[in-house]
Amino acid sequence: MGKRGCILLENEKPKGGGMEKLASFIVDKRNLFFLLYIFALIFSAIATGWVKVEDDITTYLPDTTETRQGLTVMNDNFVTYGTANVMVSNITYDTALDIQSRLEDIEGVTTVEFDDTDEHYTNASALFSVSFDAEVGDERAENALQEIRDELEGSYDTSIYSEVGYDSSADLQSEMVVIVIIAAIIIVVVLTLTSRSYAEVQVLIMTFGAAEHGHKLPVRHDQLHLQLSHRHTAAGAGHRLRHHSVPPFQ
Question: What angle do CA 44, 47, 53 make, to 5 degrees?
Fold first, then answer.
């Protein structure tokens, strides 16, 4: 009788709550869940390319706000032409005047400001304030800036500071890639040292990857992954007139 009772107890399945039943179901159907997980991971990787990154935070302002209306009026009535600050070091003042004349002859350049004040010439260094006849993102301004480089670089000690041809989004993206790689290495090392099995590390890495891609699915425009660029950070129309981004020297 005792032996039979022990056999019945061993064969009897434990009764648990809803979470235990769910966990048992997942374990029993683990191959199916792995297959579904792989399909979801592939879909997330493909869907990443569907996301449109909006780097202008003012796009999310309602049309009824004064800031949005002021920006609209400014964009419709004023054109922001591309500019560049070109510094040439170790030259005489006469050489700087000659360079000014050569820069003014470049197609696409409207004005080149330079004089003998400390703002433009000091310690054998000349600073030229160049204005283009096209906007920052216009190809004509980019071509004119490239001609300035071709004219000066190689012959003079030159530094050029300009928003023309500078893509802040691409620069931010390249920096994010480095950060993600470093973070991934640290995560893998930590998981390897703290996990009970190597399979657990692989599952967690796939989970992190799917979570990173999955939150970028294009469900609604206002839920898209937003990368804040250091361009267009003005809070109002007046602030935008006096606030400018600072790209690196090129």
Answer: 120
Contact 99, 157 (CB under 8 A): no
C-alpha 153/C-alpha 150 separation (Å) is 6
Q: What pLDDT is attached to residue 98?
A: 92
Strand, coil or helix: what is 83?
strand
φ, ψ of residue 45 to 5 degrees: the values are: -65, -40
Specify the higher pLDDT residue, 136 or 219: 136
Q: Which two tokens stand for residue 248?
A: 């690196």
Rounded to an integer, what distance in angstroms lies between the CA atom of residue 186 and that of residue 200? Answer: 16
Question: How confident is the model over 154-181, as a mean pLDDT?
Answer: 81
Place of tokens 């600073």: 127
**DSSP bridge partners of 121:** 126
* Spatial distance between the Cα atoms of 83 and 108, rounded to a whole number of angstroms: 11
Tokens of 85: 């600050």
User: For the whole model, what pTM was predicted?
Assistant: 0.48
